[in-house]
């Protein structure tokens, strides 16, 4: 066990966002890789904006992501006497003074060098800095003092934080020097930008961890993608488990340039993790997601009488109530869509026609199919053939009979499969058409064919 100690210090004034998670993750990876300690500090001295609800959400999000911390949680709000004590010590040393009820740190006129692990040496001239307020007139500390005192008292050896804090660091070093304290080592991470070149914000899509969790992302997918925002493993590998990230992580491979958040790449990475799960784990997780989903995307689905979440409602669908889905059919459904979904929430959109009647939004294609007597003739023949079959459990038989109809008419299988897919799903893409027909069942397939042809 090394003596390395790092910390993540969120403020409970909002949800834990992507930038914060990336900072927490790099601290966690460094601590675990070095055999050190990863500590958590709640910076809750903003009395107006800090709430227990936000704190709870931050802690829940970190636990969900698997970023477990060491030792007891530290709250700044419980350390006010300590900050006041240090402020008075600075006054006694002649390094600070009172001004209109506040306490200001007297900025030394000197050059300050920041030895940054990511950016090498960065030099500042403190003559450009104004005296620094360290205690407000209400007796509460300013960020700069609280952070310096906390890092010292917690024995923090490495401060790993965003580049936006780089200009704060020389001020913190001067405070540490005035108190006779050793400065920790610093590493400032590149900022995360959206595709438009501006800092990541809500206009770029979801930024809170809770939103990603509610959409059905896997924690390992989110962690994997965020690790690659500003860090390069030095190999072509892109898919990592958390233990693999711990093993390979190095602050020396953190990139200096700003990272660009790519939602499509995040979806791809998450999809890879879904497909890497053991079958039983996937089945348990996606079922639990839909059973417990409090953020219903609009549909109700029941498995053996138990609702796995609101997959529809009659009001939203404008259709009759959908029948309960057997556990066997549910398992067949999630297995069929596993290669296609990128998140557990995708199932609602990918398989919408499994829960409700298809919507034929492509009017041009619909008219082309209906206006082609050869195609409608094929579909009518297929209807008659399918009607004679038993249930649709035998996928090979559905395949054989459907293609036979096309071949007997002197056409290729695609001439019947493409329009059939549109009739059954309302679209041009789906899982294998015969597996899908087996999933939908005979009654549903015939009903949709009949309605379309009439």
Overall description:
The protein has helices at residues 18-34, 52-65, 80-92, 143-153, 169-178, 209-214, 219-227, 242-248, 263-276, 279-292, 314-317, 327-337, 346-350, 352-355, 363-370, 373-388, 395-408, 414-425, 433-440, 442-453, and strands at residues 5-8, 37-42, 74-75, 96-99, 102-105, 111-116, 120-125, 132-135, 158-162, 185-189, 192-193, 259-260. The strands form five sheets. A three-stranded parallel β-sheet has the order 1-2-3. The chain has a three-stranded antiparallel β-sheet with strand order 4-5-8. It has a two-stranded antiparallel ribbon with strand order 6-7. It is elongated. Helices cover 46% and strands 11% of the residues. The longest helix is centred in the first third of the chain and has 17 residues, at 18-34. Helix 17 (395-408) packs across helix 18 and helix 17 (395-408) packs across helix 19 (433-440). It is mainly alpha-helical and 454 residues long. Strand 4 and strand 5 form a beta hairpin.
In short:
The chain is built from 20 helices and twelve strands.
Main traits of this protein?
46% helix; three-stranded parallel sheet; 454 residues; 12 strands; three-stranded antiparallel sheet; mainly alpha
- The average pLDDT score comes to 90
Helix fraction by DSSP (H/I, runs of at least 4): 40-55%
Q: Strand share of the residues? A: 5-15%
Q: Unreliable segments (pLDDT under 50, ≥5 consecutive)? A: 294-300, 305-323
Strands of the widest sheet, in order across it, are 1-2-3
What is Rg?
A: 30 Å
Structural class: mainly alpha
- Describe the oligomeric state of these chains in a short phrase: single chain
Distance between the termini: 75 Å
Largest sheet: 3 strands, parallel
Q: Let me know the number of strands.
A: 12
Shape: elongated
Number of alpha- plus pi-helical segments: 20
